C-alpha cells in the first residue's frame, strides 16, 4: 500500500534541525524524493540516505504508484500536493500524510527581509538603494514613523501592518549600510544583540530576581539603570533629542523635570483650561500659532527655543539643589 509522506521543513533553519518523527521516517528505508537539490538532500546523502531528484511533472505518478517521502521545497510545493490530492480518490489504497520536520520560529521571516535588503544593496541590485546613505535615508525614517503613527490613529489593523513593515525596513537598511564599513561597521545582528542586552539589563524585575511594587518604582529603577549606563549625562534633561518636533521636545523636558522632582517654573498659561478639556488646550495652541504667524514668528522655532531655555533653567535649578 503506497504511503506518501509529505515532509515540510523550514528553509530558515539548518537542514539537520528536524523533528524526531521526520528523522524516523527518513531513516526507515522509505524512498526519498525531491524536486531539486537542497541542503537537506545533501545532508541526507552524507548520512547514507538516498535522495532521488524527480521532475515535478512526473512526481505525482511516481509517488502515487510507489509512495515515499517527498522533500517539499521552500514554498511547500503546493501545486504538486494539490495535483496528488485531486487524484487520491481515484487511487485506492494510497495514504497521504503531511509531516512537519521543522517550523519557522517566531521572527524567522525577518531573515527574509534581511536577505532582500542585502540583495537590493549588492551589485546587480537596485540603483536607488545602492546610492543611499544614512543621511539621505534619515527623512524616510521620520516619514515612516509618522505614517505609522497615523496608522495607529486610524484603527485599521491592515493599514498598521503595512506601515509597520515600511518602518521596519528602515533600520534594517541602515544596518546593512553600516555593515559595509570595514573599520567600525555593524550589522542587523549586532543591533539586535545590543537591544536584547539593554532590554534584559533594564528589566531586572522580569529577567532577574528584583521585584517591583508599582509603576512608580519601576520608573525610578529605570531611571537609575539609565543613569548608570550613561554617566556622561549630568542633568535630568540631558539626552533628550533636540531635533524632534517642538511640542514633543517641550513635553519631554517637562516629563524629565517632573520625574526628577525639580521645581522649575513654566510660563503662565493665559487662560487656564478646565481639567481634561482637550478642545480648549487645542484651541489655545492653535490661537498661539495663529498669533505667531500674525507677528511673523515661526511657532515651531519659537517653541523649540522656549523649550531649550526651559532646559537651561532646569539645569541651573539642578545645580543649585544638588
Overall average pLDDT: 90
Sheet with the most strands: spatial strand order: 3-2-4-1-5
Q: Shape, please?
A: elongated
State the helicity in percent bands.
Answer: 55-70%
How many strands, which pairing sense, and closed or not: the largest β-sheet?
5 strands, parallel
**Total count of domains:** 4
Structural class: alpha/beta
Q: What is the number of E strands?
A: 5
What series of H and E elements makes up the topology? EHEHEHEHEHHHHHHHHHH
Number of helices: 14
Our measurement of the CA-to-CA distance between the termini, rounded to an integer number of angstroms, reads: 85 Å
Percentage of residues in DSSP E strands:
5-15%
Radius of gyration: 30 Å
List low-pLDDT spans.
Answer: none
Pfam family, one: MazG
Protein name: XTP/dITP diphosphohydrolase
Domain NTP pyrophosphohydrolase MazG-like: 132-207
GO molecular function: nucleoside triphosphate diphosphatase activity
Describe this structure in words.
The radius of gyration is 30 Å and the shape is elongated. Helix 2 (39-46) links the parallel strand 2 (32-34) and strand 3. With 322 residues, it is an alpha/beta fold. The chain is 58% helix and 7% strand. 14% of the residues are buried. It contains 14 helices and five strands. Helix 5 packs across helix 8 (157-179), helix 7 (134-154) runs antiparallel to helix 8 and helix 12 (246-260) runs parallel beside helix 14 (299-321).
Task: Draw up the topology in text.
Blueprint: E1 3-8, H1 20-26, E2 32-34, H2 39-46, E3 51-53, H3 56-66, E4 68-71, H4 78-87, E5 95-100, H5 109-121, H6 127-131, H7 134-154, H8 157-179, H9 188-202, H10 204-207, H11 215-229, H12 246-260, H13 278-294, H14 299-321
Parallel strand pairs: 1-4, 1-5, 2-3, 2-4
Helix pairs in contact: 3-4, 5-8, 7-8, 12-14
